[in-house]
Design brief:
alpha/beta, Rossmann fold, L-2-Hydroxyisocaproate Dehydrogenase, Chain A, domain 2, 6-stranded parallel sheet, 3-stranded antiparallel sheet, 11 helices, 14 strands, globular
């Protein structure tokens, strides 16, 4: 495994200083599904004690306090304390990890500009709180949608924090793509490698199979043997992955909960502890200009993680179809960025 990204607090059974983890929207369903597994070691590993800071709105404080009581009753050896906050500055004080789950959902009749403005009121406050009081090694994954642009917003209000410390969750899309490919190929998910998700966490995202393998063989070749060619990829696989959230809402009457929590935990764990071997995963990270994505834009890429850093996988060949799909999703991200700029919602860092 990679070296600890928290060098001043070495990992291991003898570690005495816990890592502070701030969870926003902690009383919500995803937050509830996340915190117990984090306390059990699924976030930072089985040798890293944590302290949980649960941030909630005043109306949801009592529910968060109930969650805190349950966490105490769980008697988790790695959990060195849990506190509930309404104030963002207090919640992010000394935090090294942020799970930014809480966000304003899109209501019926709400325009995209309204949604962006409502969430700017949340993520600008959190970004400023991070800037004022979070630990120097702070890193955050934004789960609340629109995740990519919310991450961009938060980072703009934290000018003293490296931009790459704010990321967006596309690991759930990655998991969905892996699972759908495995099912179509009649394979185990552990046999699938090289799937990538590009662009926005929205219906425009591009789950890419051009570099994927199943059991070490090219995925497209395996699919072709099952009479599932490029038409199936375009007309069935890509839309199903992109619209899986809507499918789950239709079936269970509510949005994804446990799968989203699991993806957020995996995102942070791989970021902190490293992706295994040469494998990559998918994360929404600030672009460094790779693959024609404008620098700074928070877009999903295939990444590897080492020493607490996520690095975009370089040099992948993209065919015309892939390039056009990525371009379309990035265009949507640029439109969202332009909208928050026009509304004057960005902080001092553009």
């Amino acid at each position: 495994m990679s070296a600890s990204p928290f060098p001043d607090r070495p990992t291991g059974p003898g570690r005495t200083v816990p890592t502070t983890v701030t969870v926003t929207g902690a009383a919500g369903q995803i937050g509830y599904a996340t915190v117990f597994r984090a306390a059990a070691g699924d976030l930072l590993g089985p040798d890293t004690p944590i302290r949980l800071h649960l941030l909630e709105l005043p109306a949801a404080r009592r529910a968060a306090e109930g969650t805190a009581l349950e966490l105490q009753d769980g008697a988790f050896p790695l959990l060195h304390g849990v506190e509930v906050f309404e104030d963002a500055d207090a919640a992010f004080d000394g935090a090294s990890v942020g799970l930014l789950i809480g966000a304003r959902p899109r209501a019926q009749g709400m325009e995209r500009a309204d949604l962006l403005e409502a969430n700017a009121g949340i993520f600008s406050v959190q970004g400023r709180a991070v800037n004022r009081g979070a630990a120097e090694d702070f890193r955050a994954v934004v789960v609340g949608n629109p995740a990519n642009t919310n991450a961009y917003l938060a980072a703009s209000h934290a000018p003293d924090v490296p931009r790459e410390r704010f990321t967006a969750l596309t690991r759930l899309d990655h998991h969905r793509a892996v699972a759908q490919l495995a099912a179509a190929a009649d394979a185990l998910v552990g046999e699938v490698d090289g799937v990538a998700v590009w662009g926005n966490h929205s219906a425009s995202q591009y789950p890419d199979l051009t570099h994927a393998t199943v059991g070490g063989r090219p995925a497209l070749e395996v699919l072709a043997e099952r009479d599932l060619g490029l038409e199936w990829v375009d007309s069935t696989f890509i839309p199903r992955v992109a619209r899986r959230g809507a499918e789950i809402i239709d079936v269970r009457g509510g949005s994804s909960v446990a799968s989203a929590a699991h993806a957020a935990l995996c995102h942070v764990r791989d970021w902190v502890l490293g992706t295994p071997g040469a494998a990559w995963t998918s994360m929404g990270v600030p672009s460094d200009g790779s693959y024609g994505v404008p620098e700074g834009l928070v877009s999903s890429f295939p990444v590897t993680c080492r020493d607490g850093r996520a690095r975009i996988v370089p040099g992948l060949e993209l065919d015309r179809f892939s390039g056009s799909r990525i371009e379309a999703s990035v265009r949507e991200l640029e439109e969202e960025r332009a909208a928050v700029q026009q509304l004057g919602l960005l902080g001092p860092r553009r």
